[in-house]
Amino acid sequence: MEIPGPCGSRDSDMSFKDNLRRDALNSFLNTNEFAESIQYTPKGGTPKTIKAVINRKRLTPGGEESGRVLQDQVEILIANDPVYGVSVINKGGDEVLFPEVLGGIDVNFVVIDVLGEDQGMWHLLVQK
Known about the structure:
Elements: H1 16-28, E1 36-41, E2 48-55, E3 73-79, E4 95-99, E5 106-117, E6 121-127
Antiparallel strand pairs: 1-2, 1-4, 2-3, 3-6, 4-5, 5-6
């Protein structure tokens, strides 16, 4: 599913922000490339299926916490878009459902932090 620019504009008519959004949706959040489908439920809202890049590696805290591993936490990247992702994040209230390991059964996670955001994507920390 190719996401066009605003009003079907050509690349030369698009701003950097438009290109960033389009690249996030068409490249990074493409299930033929990096992404997989997850279920996202906004706090008090209706669940919807969106695409996400899931970083399932164990997170290691820095500094004085060095040597410990943060278990049951995962980083995900989703579209910052009201149609193909979400436009507002509710830390502690929004939930996501996806397999903890590839090919496994779906597990429920809660969004606990926004690690970053731009015009195209949210970078979220979720926890079981």
